Amino acid sequence: MARKPKTSNNNLLFLSALTLIMASTTSLAMYKHSEKPKPIYITDKKVNLIPNIAPLPVLAAETDSTQPVFSAVSVIAVDVDSGVTLYEKNPDEVLFPASTTKIVTALVALEVYRLTDIVTVDNPPVDGQKMGLVNGEQITVENLLKGMLIYSANDAAEALARNYPDGYQAFIDKMNEKAQELSMTHSHFMNSNGLENWQHVSTARDMARAGAAAMNNPLFSEIVGTKKTTVTSVDGTYVHKLANVNKLIGTVDGVIGVKTGYTEHAKENLITYVERNGKRVVISLLGSDDRFGETTTLIDWVYGNYKWEEVNLP
């Protein structure tokens, strides 16, 4: 019988360390979807390449032990670089995402269109927030993205989906494929705008993943951080003034995105991306009575009670 090869203690120690490191970075991959981890080197007779570990957030010793209480049904705050959860309340409860849906709509549109592509508007009537598109109007994809993400325009979301060459349903199918790609395991979309449908659902955790992934796209990040702008049809006939419906943009330190949402049954939703002193946090709040106030409270609590410590590997 062949003898099993011996494994040295050094090799066992290295394999154990590698397993621990890979486990700690699993959640990170959910939030830094498009970024490759920077390598570091650990030598054990030979050079081995393992992922870099981001500074980890830990509650400060002098922290207030009282966590904030929110009206929101579902809340999560996640450190973007490490993937560590900083606060949560029912983060996997399935709810209506409302217009936070448009984060996923935008991700798909950015994949299937060029920004300079010209769309001819041919929308059926749509409820809710609208930028005032006129049927027959020709407008670029980039300007539709601005209308959808800055002003939360449902007519812009519809125009993007309905002009997809393979048809409206194929666009929605791509949204659901994108959700699976981002590990949004409790999400399912039935439309591009977020209007209520009992099968159109998501969770705070899922929408945090979508928001963090979308902010990796420079154009998306630029658009959602825009306070106000004006866009026009291709021929300049139709002018659309857009003001950001996210009241935290330009008013709360470090907030650079992402997206609001509201319907009668969804109540107030808000996905937020904030960066202070190089530390990035994504917050997802669904079913709130005061999305802007509660998000501001959570931002202040996170940055006031956590400190980020470097990981010293042996």
Please describe the structure with a list of short key phrases separated by commas or semicolons.
314 residues, 13 strands, 9 helices, 2 domains, elongated, two-stranded antiparallel sheet, disordered N terminus, 32% helix, 24% strand, Beta-lactamase, five-stranded antiparallel sheet, alpha+beta
Class from secondary-structure proportions: alpha+beta
Instruction: Report on the biggest sheet.
Output: 5 strands, antiparallel
Radius of gyration, CA atoms, in whole angstroms: 22 Å
Poorly predicted tracts of residues: 1-29, 33-50
Name of the level-1 CATH class of the largest domain: Alpha Beta
Sum up the overall morphology in one term: elongated
Tell me the number of helical segments per DSSP (H or I, 4 or more residues long): 9
Please state roughly what percent of the residues sit in beta strands, choosing from under 5%, 5-15%, 15-25%, 25-35%, 35-45% or over 45%. Answer: 15-25%
The CATH architecture of the largest domain would be: 3-Layer(aba) Sandwich
**Superfamily at the CATH H level of the largest domain?**
DD-peptidase/beta-lactamase superfamily
The percentage helix is 25-40%
Distance between the termini: 39 Å
Would you report the number of β strands? 13
**CATH topology value of the largest domain:** Beta-lactamase
